[in-house]
Amino acid sequence: MRLTEEFTLRQAVVTCPACNRTFSTPHLANMPVITQDTPIETDLHRALPNGAIRAALIGLCRGCGYAWWITVFKTEEILPNSLTADEYSLERTQYPRKFANAFLTGRQNGAHHRELALLALNGHWCAREAGLPHERWLDLAAQEMGKALRDRDWTGNRGYYHYLMGEICRQQRKFKEALEHFGTVDFQSRLPRELILRQKVQATAGDSSPTRLPPYLVELIFCPRRSRKAFPL
Ligand SMILES: [Zn+2]
Question: From ligand 1's centre to the CA of 112, what distance in Å?
Answer without folding.
Answer: 22
